[in-house]
Each structure stands twice: as C-alpha cells, then as structure tokens.
Amino acid sequence: MSVLIVTSEGDLVVDLHTDQCPRTTYNFLKLCKMKYYNGCLFHKVAKDFVAQTGDPTGTGAGGDSVYKFLHGDQARFFNDEIHPELRHSKIGTVAMASAGKNRNASQFYITLRDDVEYLDDKHTVFGVVAEGEGLDTLTKINESYVDADGRPFKDIRIKHTYVLYDPDDDPAELAELVPPNSPIGKLIDEIGEERLEDTWVPLDETVDPAQLEEMIRSKEAHTNAVILASIGDIPDAEVKPPDNVLFVCQLNPVTQDEDLYTIFSRFGTVTSAETIRDYKTGDSLCYAFVEFEAKEACERAHRDMNNCLIDDRRIQVDFSQSVSKLWRQFRQGTRNASKDGCFKGHAPDYQARDLDKGFEKKNKDRDYVLKDENTQRGGSNRRSYDLVFDEDGASAGNKQDRRNGDRRKAQKLGDWRSEVPHKRDRDRNNREKLHTSKEGGRRRDDHISYDRSSDRSYSRRNNLSLFPSLYIPPYIYI
What we know:
The chain has helices at 22-33, 66-71, 135-142, 174-177, 209-230, 257-264, 295-305, 327-332, 359-363, 373-376, 396-418, 423-438, 452-462, and strands at 2-7, 10-16, 44-46, 50-53, 93-96, 108-111, 125-129, 158-163, 245-249, 270-277, 284-292, 309-310, 313-314, 316-319, 368-372, 383-387. By secondary structure, it is α+β, with helices and mostly antiparallel strands. The strands form 4 sheets. Strands 3-4-6-5-7-2-1-8 form an 8-stranded antiparallel β-sheet. A 4-stranded antiparallel β-sheet has the order 10-11-9-14, covered by helices on one side. Strands 12-13 form a two-stranded antiparallel sheet. β3 and β4 form a beta hairpin. Mean pLDDT is 78; it is low at 334-394 and 440-472.
C-alpha cells in the first residue's frame, strides 16, 4: 500500500504500515482520495529534525480526520496506534502529528534524519518514504530557509496525492466528498502569513546574465533616487530630466544668452536660452541650458553642436540631467506647471539681482524699524532693529508717535507725584482728623483745617487708581 505525494520540491512515495496501524492508514488513504491534502503547506520545517504538514489553514492548529466527514464532529479525532517495533530510526519516517494523547486528525510529519529517538512512543508511526523515491526531495525541504517559527520563507506545498493501492473499499459517503477535479494552488481555508509562492524562481535561473545585470542597475538607480529625494536633492524619486533641454558647458565667459538663442534657433523653436551666472557678481559660470519647443529639435542640436566652436571655445553639448525646472510642479502643483521657470541658482523662480534693491519697499509696514543708534542713543555708527509690536499693523511712524504720547503722559504723572506731601505730613494730618472726630461727636466736615477742594486735588494727585491703564516704565527716553 503506497501513496505518491507530489510537492513543490519534488515527489515522495510513502509505503504504509496498514497491518499495524489500520485506523491511521485508513484515515490517511481516504483523505488522499478526497484531495484533502492538495495545497497544504509544510508549515513547519525543523532542520535535521522533522517537516510537518497536513493542515489546510497553514497554521498548525487545524485539520480534521476522515471520520469527522463520515460520522460527525464528535469523531474529529481518533486514537493512537503506537507499536514498539515502529520507531523513528530512518530518515523519511512518516507519523501523525497529534494535539495530545489519542487526538490524531490530519496533520503528519516526516523525519529529516535517522534516529529521531525523542519521538519514539509518543506519536503513531504509520509509514516511511521509500528508498530512492523521495530522499532527495527531503534534502531540499531540509535545506529551505525558514523564519524563527520554522515557517519556510518560500512556500512548500503538497501539489497532488495519488493512492497507488488501497486494500479497503470506499464507504458510500466518500463518493460525495471526492471533488471532480483536483484542487490546485492556495487553499481557501489557508490563513497563514503570505510568503513567496511555491512557483517563485530566482531571477538568475530565468533571466540571462546581461538582462539580470541591467535589472540590478535599474534597481540600484531607483534606490539612489529615493535617497536623493529623501534629503531634498531632487523633488521626487520618479522624476525624470526633461528631454527637450540641452546642457551646454565650456562656454566662453563673454557668451551671452542672445548668442545662444541665435545659434541654437536654427534647429527649431527655442523657448529659453539661459547662461548660468553667479548670483552675487553676475559673472558667467561658463555653462548654460537651452530649451527647445520640440524634442526632435533638441536631438538635432545635440548631434550637430557637440564639439563646435563658440567664441573661440569648443563647447560640449549633452542632454540635460537637471530637474531644477520641475521643482515648481512638485511644490505648487500642476496648476502652475505650465509656467516657465529658470535654471539660475537651481530654483525655478530665482533671478539674480542686487541684494539692496527694493529694500525700503520690503521694510514697509513691518513689525520692526531700522534705527540709527548714533542719533537715538549715542555711540558708534552701528544700525540695529528695534522691535515694535502692534496688533493693528500700523506703520512704524504711527507706532513711534503713540509711544511719544505715552511718554508725555508718564512725564505729567511724575510732575503730579512731585507735589504730593511727604509721608510724615500725611500721617500728621490723619491724626488731626481722627482727634477732631472724637471731640463731642462733631461733624468731620466742620473742623477740617483745609478746604474740600484742596482735598479733592490732593486725592487726584495721590490716588494712582485714577490711571488704571497707564504703565510707568522704569526709564523714559526723551
């Protein structure tokens, strides 16, 4: 009694011990006829130990016996059939992977070396891989790369199972369980983590060396582009230089934009011809970018103008590898993509200009004013920024007038405070008023030594609560 197991790594022929383990071999043979094992993963491979399979879920926690399909859920597991003469002495020993004593279902394992004595008398041994008919397949399975849990990184599946001989007749219920066609590929019940499919083949086995080298270079170029995009050197990893722009170098410093426009326009419409210049001095850096309206004109110019003389200099012409003109599209979106940029300074909107030009206009209505310390505080000729905060956004001149008004108010308050009597005089007046109020119950208003108007004037000068919103600075600039 034998079964042929076709795996993604090769074929295995298993000879069954039907006389010693009738219930176990009956379960295995009928499940093979039901194509129950088709598509099952070898979900665990322990190097030089065992390879385990037979679980449709691919997790090692599932599987049902044929008795469940024939008699119901209560018959999912069946008892062990352990015999002392059946040992794990040879490589390729096939035994049941049980969930405990007398809890066998569908999972089984195959030993990957001789003398696995650790498993003796613990699991039901019901078969062995025939010599010369699958040992090389076991070697491939044993050498597969696995993770920390023993799951192969490349799926190893049972493709098909063929029963070569079955001594027992099939029950009537089994005919309904046998599918008309053998299942192929991944099972519907599989919930294990996805890995490389069993059909995956390394590229070096399917692609010629030249094509493989080109693919490796392409991947390396993409990796470098991702790095450049992450550090902000290019706008995007997938960006490509424009194919209608030429890069012209080794120019004579006297060559102007108009000269390039005149020379290159004979190949087609030139939309821009710009010599790159130092943004401070305006001196030519001896290279330029020429943009054409059509790609064909750019190709003709590259073919005919390379190594030509311009202003006694033999120039070099190549297709542009700069993506600086594309920054606008990535920063501002496609709505501004049609606007022409500029290659100067490697930014689309950069223009060389005098740094002091337009300075007064930029300073207008800002939250700071430039002061000359020599005129305001004395000292050297240094110039500094004096911060002035105002929620209304008024001009610097209005803010300065407001500050001067506050200073005048503070000065008047200081003059009023200088007229307030000394503390000793105020205490003496208070004692006199208290003494007068105690004599004969007289009214306080009739015996005050100063008039009421004077008292009111004094109160105004002495009571700071009359000016709750006025802030007195520690020092005042006049």
